[in-house]
Amino acid sequence: MQYLTKRKSICMLAIWLCASAACAQYAVNGGRGEPLLAADNTQQRIRVYLLNGMDGATLSYTSATSSHRWFRYRTRASEAESVASSTVGNTSTVDRVEEGYGYFVQDGDNYAMSQFVWLIDYSLRPVQISNLRVAEGAGCEGLRLSGENTTAPLLYHTPGGLEITILRSYEASLMTQIWNDAGRQFTSAMRIDTLEGDPFARTLAPPLEDTEIQLSGDLFARHFGLEKTFATAFYQAVALEVHADTTVLSDGGTNMQDTGTERLAPAEIRFGAHANTPVASLFIWQIYRSEDMEHPLVRFTGPETEYTFSLAGSYVVRLEVSDRTGVCTNTEHTYNINITETVVLIPNAFTPEGSPGVNDVFRVVYKSVSRFQGVIFNRWGAELYRWTDPAGGWDGTYRRRLVPAGPYFYVIDYTGTDGKTHRRSGDINVIRSSKSKADSGPNQ
C-alpha cells in the first residue's frame, strides 16, 4: 500500500506541529457509557480508547478538508486495509468500527501520521479474580496478595507492530495504625494503596492491626460502573512499628561544665517504648556494659522502665519488641550511654555577704558523685553545718547568723561512680567584706 503520494519534509513538519498543538481531530463515541482514553502514547502517535461494548460505536475525523481516506490495521500499519466511511462537510465517520483494531486517516494527499486510534471493548475483558488471600510469608516488612487471576490483558499494537499491554490499576484498602508524633501515640485508620499492573506482583506495606484486606478495581471498571471488590479472610497482623525515647529524670548534677553526651552519676533515666499494640506484645529492655555484650546487667520486661546508673563507664541499652506470635521482632532501638568519672574540687575560701551569687557559698565542684556528705566544724570541733546534696553548700551562717571571719574545718565524704569511697578534709577560710559587721559567734 502506498501511504504518501507526496512526501515533502516541509509538509511532514506541518502535520507533526499540528499534532503537537493538540489539534487531534478524532472523536470516539458509542458503547454503554462514555468511552475512556486509557493510553496516550505520544511517542508512537497512538491513543487507546476503552468502550463498554461496541453498540453504536463510531469513529469520526474532522479536518480542514473533506478528502479523507480511512484505514485500519490489526498488527502493524504497513498491513492496513481501507475502511468505508460517510462524510458530512469536513467530518467523516466510520459507523461500524470494531474493537481490536488501530484506525487512522489519510487526509488528502498526506498520510496522517500525527495520530492513530486503537479501540478495545472492555466488556470482553473484565477483572476476573477469585480466592483472594494473603500470600504465604511472615509479613514483617511487607506482604503480597494471592489468588486466581484469569483477567484477560488489555493489548494494542503500535503502528510499527509493537505489542503493548495497558496496565490496570487496583486499590487495596485495609485498617492499620498511624503514629502521631505530637501525641506520642498510635491511632487506628484506613489506608488505601494503589496497585498498578498485576496486583499479586506488588508488595504492600503490612498492616499494623488485624484487618480484612479488600481489593477493588480495576479503575477502568470504575469509570464504567463495573468495579468489583474482592476480600481476604480476616488477617492477623504481625508487623511491628516501634518508637522509643529516653528521659533523664535526674543525674548527679554539677557546677562543673558538662561535655558531650556524658551523664553524671547517679543518673536515673526512663526508657519508654511505643508500638502498635496488641500486635506488639513483648517488650524487653536490656542494659549491658559495652565491654561485655553477652551478659546483660539487668533485663526489664514492659514498654517502660527506669534505671539508675551509679558507676562510671560505657553502657549499651537495647530494646527488643516481638509480636504476639513471635514471628516478627524489632531491634532497631539501641542507646549508648556514658557515665563520667568522679571529680570533686574544694575551694579554700569564700565571702559570705560578698557579691551575691559570686563565691558567697562554700560549694564543691563535682562530677559523677553517687553519695555525698559534708560537715563544717569550728576550731573547737563543734559542728556548725551538715549537707548531703553535693549541689548544696554552706552559706557561712550558724543558727541564722553569719559566723566571724577566720578559718573553719571541713570533712567531706563521697562515693564516686567507680564505687570507691573517699574522705577529704581541710580548712576553709571565711572572708568578710569591710561593709559587713561580724556577729560574735562560736569561732570566738
Could you explain the architecture of this structure?
- The chain has 444 residues and is mostly beta strands.
- Helix content is 4%, strand content 47%.
- The radius of gyration is 42 Å and the shape is elongated.
Which features does this protein show?
7-stranded mixed beta sheet, 2 helices, 444 residues, elongated, mainly beta
Question: Secondary-structure map with pairings?
Answer:
Elements: H1 9-20, E1 26-29, E2 36-41, E3 46-51, E4 58-62, E5 68-73, E6 81-83, E7 86-88, E8 91-94, E9 101-107, E10 110-111, E11 116-121, E12 129-134, E13 145-149, E14 154-157, E15 163-166, E16 169-180, E17 185-196, E18 214-217, H2 219-224, E19 228-231, E20 242-250, E21 262-263, E22 267-275, E23 280-289, E24 298-301, E25 304-309, E26 313-323, E27 329-330, E28 334-339, E29 343-345, E30 349-350, E31 365-367, E32 369-377, E33 383-387, E34 397-398, E35 401-402, E36 406-416, E37 421-430
Helix run count: 2
Largest sheet geometry: 7 strands, mixed
| Uncertain runs | 1-24
Arithmetic mean of pLDDT: 87
Binned, the helix content reads under 10%
Give the strand content. over 45%
Distance between the termini: 129 Å
Helical/strand content category: mainly beta
Using the alpha-carbon principal axes, give the shape. elongated
The tally of beta strands, per DSSP, is: 37
The radius of gyration computed from the alpha-carbon positions, rounded to a whole number of angstroms, is 42 Å
